[in-house]
Amino acid sequence: MAIPDVVLLTKADCHLCTEARAAVERVTSQLGVPWTEQTIDGDPGLQERFAEEIPVVLVNGVQRDFWKIDEQRLERTLRKVMEG
Does the CA dihedral 61-5-21-31 come out positive or negative? Predict the structure, then answer.
């Protein structure tokens, strides 16, 4: 079983990031998948690429969702990765 690399990109003073953090935590804890959070603050490359889409969920480096995280879609994506 493959373990997906889940990264939540956030920035300071972002109310959607708080909601996204909770959504990612619910889904990943249900599946036993670890995740990390990375801020785009202070990273010009990430700021340029994602500034208008934060929060963003990356799974194995691929953008899977942004703004409001769809928990069902995230769960389906993670299950698919885990199944190989």
Answer: positive
Specify whether the CB–CB gap between 45 and 83 falls below 8 A. Answer: no
CA neighbours closer than 13 Å in the CB half-sphere of residue 69: 32
End-to-end CA distance of the chain: 7
3-class DSSP assignment, residue 65: strand
Q: Which residues pair with residue 14 across a beta bridge?
A: none
Share of the chain above pLDDT 70, in %: 100
The whole model's pTM is what?
Answer: 0.95
- 36 pLDDT more than 90: yes
CA angle (67, 68, 69) in 5-degree steps: 110
